[in-house]
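Hi support team,

I submitted a single chain yesterday and got back a structure, but I'm not sure I'm reading the token output correctly. Could someone confirm the output below corresponds to the sequence I sent? I've pasted both exactly as they appear in my results page.

Thanks,
R.
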Amino acid sequence: LSGTNGTGVSNNSVELDGVTIKDSVKIYGGCATDQSPTSTFKNSVTVANLQCEAGKYSEIYGGYSDNISSYENTVTIKSGAWEMVFGGCGNTGADGNKVIIDGGSFKENGQIYSGYTDSGNANENYITINAGTFNNNDIGAGYRTLGREVLWRR
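Hi R., thanks for writing in. Yes, this is the structure output for that exact sequence:
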């Protein structure tokens, strides 16, 4: 967990390299909870040379906001085992987020979204996949749950 709450959670970064994870975890570049509603923007998470115990899958968020928007966040994955990956996840919008996958494995029926929102826009989000192991995963550049509309951008 890099940055949390305040008037805006921005410009934080998490870099994990050569780490072993023995249980499932959630990793946030920036996180704003409902106790302090604000946006998350320009945060990043990069994971490389990550070892995970068998059967343990984790979640990763470049930016996460319970009540406002999440924009221009980036997640880069080079290894590890993942259930859910979000470049930016915001209640009222998720624009301009990126997910770059250069490796790793993804749990069956897991989710990978560069922009995910309950309402509002999910525009100009990008996913780049260069390598990795996938198994019946949901992959979307932009996703809005209100009305269950998938907004694809490539």
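A quick pointer for reading it: Residues 1-5 have pLDDT under 50 and may be disordered. Let us know if anything else looks off.

Best,
Support desk
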